[in-house]
């Protein structure tokens, strides 16, 4: 893939942005473990991302019927890429209506979501529990975790969820592995962030979709006791990113998968870049002397 004129112009401006050097070494966040490359939200994807050296493993959580934390994005088992394991008489249904054990009887690697058509296909890919993911990677001090709590829609099976219980289940695992300094909790449902703040203020929190609620980003974060924010290129400027960073806030990009967008993210000076293609981003950063 070649870089367009826009990308070249952005790269040419990386040395100085508004009189201040832009961030030259952003971290890489593997969105769903690298969903363009490997089966999303799987232990296999996380291990592949670990081997190629990403900084953050990003994952989604759903709460099962027996109140266990399952790593998966959708509130309902998605038949597009999850099918019952051979010999198992199950039909896809809401995660909240299945126990952890039953949820893990679906094979989610033989196909992929339509927006990730070229992701590697593999047999016997099960949705992992968060406990198993943290157990697998807790000893790797180079890896951090960006974990999103997902909620069922109002009126869906198992809704509403006790947000304090949700946060407490996560906090138990964080404390078990001593991960307070390596986990960032993100959510569109800010109640889980507030609950975590009360349970364990050492865990950094990151409210999603702040621009939908307020143009006062820093004021919103201070009100929530949060020190991280995700902002797309359309929602911020290089100066604003620097101001937030000066206030102790980690500023992450939106999910970007193309070279022009990576170049723009470098210009804006994010602390970390979200991508479904961590291998491509890593190559891009190395090529442009940013890693």
From TrEMBL:
One of its GO terms (molecular function) is phosphoric diester hydrolase activity. Residues 1-23 form the signal peptide. Keywords: Signal. It comes from Stenotrophomonas koreensis. Pfam families: GDPD (PF03009). It comes from the Bacteria. Residues 26-285 form the GP-PDE domain. This is GP-PDE domain-containing protein. GO terms for biological process: lipid metabolic process.
């Amino acid at each position: 893939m070649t870089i367009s004129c826009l990308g070249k112009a952005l790269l040419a401006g990386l040395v100085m942005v508004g009189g201040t050097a832009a961030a030259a070494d952003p971290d890489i966040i593997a969105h769903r473990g690298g969903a363009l490359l490997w089966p999303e939200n799987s232990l296999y994807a996380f291990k592949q991302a670990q081997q190629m050296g990403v900084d953050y493993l990003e994952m989604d959580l759903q709460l099962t019927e027996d109140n266990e934390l399952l790593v998966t994005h959708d509130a309902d088992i998605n038949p597009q890429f999850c099918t019952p394991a051979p010999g198992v008489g199950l039909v896809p249904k809401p995660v909240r209506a299945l126990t952890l054990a039953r949820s893990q009887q679906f094979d989610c690697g033989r196909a992929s979501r339509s927006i990730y058509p070229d992701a590697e296909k593999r047999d016997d890919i099960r949705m992992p529990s968060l406990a198993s993911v943290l157990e697998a990677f807790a000893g790797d001090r180079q890896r951090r975790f960006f974990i999103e709590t997902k909620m069922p829609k109002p009126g869906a099976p198992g809704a509403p969820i006790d947000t304090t219980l949700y946060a407490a289940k996560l906090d138990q695992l964080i404390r078990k592995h001593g991960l307070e300094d390596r986990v960032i909790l993100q959510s569109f449902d800010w109640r889980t962030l507030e609950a975590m703040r009360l349970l364990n203020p050492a865990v950094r929190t990151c409210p999603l979709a702040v621009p939908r609620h307020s143009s006062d980003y820093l004021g919103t974060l201070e009100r929530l006791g949060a020190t991280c924010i995700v902002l797309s290129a359309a929602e911020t400027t290089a100066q604003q990113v620097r101001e937030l960073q000066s206030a102790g806030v980690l500023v992450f990009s939106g999910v970007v998968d193309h070279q022009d967008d990576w170049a723009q993210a470098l210009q804006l000076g994010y602390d970390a870049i979200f991508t479904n293609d961590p291998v491509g981003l890593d190559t891009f950063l190395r090529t442009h002397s940013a890693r």
